[in-house]
What we know:
Elements: E1 15-17, H1 24-31, E2 36-42, H2 49-56, E3 66-71, H3 78-84, E4 88-91, H4 92-95, H5 105-115, E5 120-123, E6 128-129, H6 135-145, E7 151-157, E8 159-161, E9 167-169, H7 173-186, E10 201-204, H8 205-208, H9 219-231, E11 236-243, E12 245-246, H10 251-268, E13 278-283, E14 289-294
Parallel strand pairs: 1-11, 2-3, 2-5, 3-4, 7-11
Antiparallel strand pairs: 5-10, 6-12, 7-10, 8-9, 13-14
Helix pairs in contact: 1-6, 7-10, 9-10
The structure holds uridine-5'-diphosphate and the ligand O=C(O)[C@@H](COP(=O)(O)O)O[C@H]1O[C@H](CO)[C@@H](O)[C@H](O)[C@H]1O.
EC number: 2.4.1.266
Protein name: Glucosyl-3-phosphoglycerate synthase
Pfam family, one: Glycos_transf_2
Amino acid sequence: MTGALPAAVPGRPIATWDRPAWTVAELVAAKGGRTVAVVLPALNEADTVAGVIESIMPLVGGLVDDLVVLDSGSTDDTAGVAQAAGARVVSREQALPQVPPVDGKGEVLWRSIAATTADIIVFIDADLVSPDPMFVPKLVGPILTCAGVELVKGYYRRPWRTAAQHLEDGGGRVTELVARPLLAALRPELSHVVQPLGGEYAGTRALLSSLPFAPGYGVEVGLLIDTHETRGPAAIGQVNLGVRMHRHRPLTELGVMSRQIVGTLLRRCGIDDSLAPLVQFAAATDGSFATQVTEVVLADRPPMASIRRED
Length: 311
Ligand SMILES: O=c1ccn([C@@H]2O[C@H](COP(=O)(O)OP(=O)(O)O)[C@@H](O)[C@H]2O)c(=O)[nH]1
Ligand SMILES: O=C(O)[C@@H](COP(=O)(O)O)O[C@H]1O[C@H](CO)[C@@H](O)[C@H](O)[C@H]1O
């Protein structure tokens, strides 16, 4: 069922489904008693979260057993919009009451393991624009049909709206300028993962609850490296989801994201990080430059399996 594997690179290639052809009915049959949860991490996504939920709702009750929005401390109406669209909304505090929450994407993905009991968890970003309803089926396909696969990363074209509203590939700036070059340098066996930072991926509960979760935007690269380290390349798959469009943050915010990703990546590779904050410079209208300092936090959350829960 796999597509053509990528050309051989150092280490074993990652199993790649370039033209996934499973039908939803085939996947429902393949579940065999396993349960599937879809989790949308959401921080102030009131504008887009309903559209993402609507793309998944037709699967609820069949392929999907639980559709959860893990609210990341939103100050807009993300929770209200998500609930009205039919998702179950869980706050960080509700997910794990006995552990005070910290900010960041990694925190909500970690807490989502406690917020659902599903055997397979699919993460889908809540800032997607017109997501394809087949994202979730394609992501769970390899896990449901291919024994041993425990983490499936989505990959896609990432068109970028230019001023002329033309679509041209240009998304994934941190992926192309930071994550991919650093992985080539430090973990070449992961060089052929097309979207190492991609926010659309599926994992088994057994895997996800056994790993630490890096904070903030380091979570994806941390899980990818840890899965490779602990389970080997055969546990990782990647599947072509077609086209993905999302909200694009300004460069300064991606600089902060990059600092987090670099810190996590270095630490996972046994290289000390200075823990120095990121200092950025914003040009003022009078020609001067104002500094903006952002601290980096690299403390992981421990594997959820090690947390005693107050049920
Ligand atoms: O502290 C955070 C930061 C991000 N997110 C969510 O994680 C996903 C991806 O984050 P973002 O859109 O900021 O990354 P980008 O896709 O722009 O690179 C989105 O659904 C965010 O709402 C979150 O839940 N908590
Ligand atoms: O890939 C990237 O370079 C960044 C930023 O993407 P864009 O340059 O705004 O398309 O997005 C990554 O990081 C996000 C946060 O973890 C994820 O949600 C995206 O899926 C991931 O691609």
